[in-house]
Structure to design on (411 residues):
């Protein structure tokens, strides 16, 4: 056990580097689940919070969205980051509570319903084949994350938004800078001020896009956002940009993390790779296991609207809570042998997409992308192995592998 005390274990949740060391992270989370599942964390540079680490307690909080609100602190950042985010005024779906959340979420709901997913599947399948074909034509070695995993879901979500392909590399760079602000390799600079230009470039790009779609509406999601009305009024520039941001960034970064993490899990567990290749009917359950295994969204924050109790802990009105999804998805009370990767796991009650009114808007799309990609890749594998050390992103919010060196041959 690397974590010596419960307080040490709690502070791990506020240490971006801990998410690069899975042994350290999971040792701390297992200690919390066992000895202090609702634990008060007071970490340097952060406003204190309750760490909620058991699956059942996370579900309790998610269901009670009137008691535990997303605003004003939906994501764990430093005290300085809390102040900066409030000053900028970006307000995405993850910042909102009902009734505002329900009204704004409805703008994109139809684009992610089953009927819309069926219409999009032809394009997703096509993009999966394009990227696997590119692997097959390659040298047989490379960084799967940077060569494939970040690009395939980027093409999907940018196509849905209607963004020109020439702008894809810029969007990828800005997304990695925003979500990688705690990572020495991905961040734009060492301070919060250094990361602001990435957000401002996103703001300028999407403000221009809004104006363009209002002047000349098109049949894409960007036009739906630009021309949406809430209570009869068009979205303000900041609200429209906020909607684009959550779709354009979370819409591909989380999926790329799951694709690369899923492939690594198959490499690390060759018996599971053989089982899945022998019976591709297991692919839907394998996809769910990849999502549980990776849990690309590590946590969200909530704020207690009134005094209440979770387990034996007395939560005060105004207290912040961190919902550790990565912990809940390894909870032995819910998952049999939670530290084993099992492509046939059933049931799989993972909470990687959240639960309740804030359940991930793009969950169906993510599942479809993963299914299409592995349906194309797995039957074509002749050889697959690691070619170096995988590297994870430093984060406390969204992340996964940033490098996965592999050697392979495909048909």
């Amino acid at each position: 056990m690397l974590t010596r005390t419960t307080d040490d274990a709690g502070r791990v949740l506020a240490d971006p580097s801990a998410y690069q060391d899975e042994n350290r992270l999971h040792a701390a989370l297992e200690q919390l689940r066992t000895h202090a599942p609702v634990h008060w964390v007071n970490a340097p540079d952060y406003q204190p919070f309750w760490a909620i680490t058991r699956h059942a307690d996370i579900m309790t909080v998610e269901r009670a969205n009137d008691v535990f609100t997303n605003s004003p602190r939906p994501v764990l950042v430093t005290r300085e980051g809390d102040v900066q985010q409030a000053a900028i005024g970006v307000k995405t779906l993850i910042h909102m509570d009902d009734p505002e959340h329900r009204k704004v979420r409805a703008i994109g709901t139809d684009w992610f319903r089953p009927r819309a997913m069926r219409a999009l599947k032809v394009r997703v399948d096509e993009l999966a084949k394009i990227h696997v074909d590119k692997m097959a034509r390659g040298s047989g070695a490379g960084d799967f994350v940077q060569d494939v995993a970040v690009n395939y879901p980027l093409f999907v979500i940018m196509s849905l938004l209607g963004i020109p392909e020439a702008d894809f590399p810029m969007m990828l760079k800005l997304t990695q800078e925003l979500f990688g602000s705690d990572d020495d390799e991905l961040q734009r600079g060492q301070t919060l001020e250094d990361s602001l230009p990435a957000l401002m470039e996103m703001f300028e790009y999407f403000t221009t896009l809004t104006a363009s779609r209002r002047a000349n509406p098109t049949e894409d999601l960007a036009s739906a956002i630009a021309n949406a009305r809430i209570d009869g009024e068009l979205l303000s520039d900041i609200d429209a940009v906020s909607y684009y941001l959550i779709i354009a960034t979370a819409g591909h970064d989380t999926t790329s993390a799951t694709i690369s993490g899923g492939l690594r899990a198959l490499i690390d567990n060759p018996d599971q790779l053989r089982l899945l290749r022998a019976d591709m009917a297991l692919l839907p359950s394998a996809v769910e296991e990849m999502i549980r295994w990776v849990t690309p969204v590590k946590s969200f924050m909530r704020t207690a609207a009134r005094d209440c109790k979770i387990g034996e802990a007395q939560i005060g009105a105004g207290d912040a809570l961190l919902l550790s999804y990565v912990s809940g998805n390894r909870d032995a009370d819910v998952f049999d042998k939670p530290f084993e990767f099992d492509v046939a796991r059933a049931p799989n009650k993972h909470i990687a997409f959240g639960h309740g009114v804030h359940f991930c808007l793009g969950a169906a799309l993510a599942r479809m992308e993963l299914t299409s990609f592995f349906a194309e890749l797995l039957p074509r594998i002749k050889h697959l192995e690691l070619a170096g050390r995988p590297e994870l992103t430093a984060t406390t919010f969204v992340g996964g592998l940033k490098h996965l060196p592999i050697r392979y041959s495909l048909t």
The radius of gyration is 21 Å. The mean pLDDT is 91. Residues 237-268 form the longest helix (32 residues). The first strand starts at residue 38 and ends at 41.
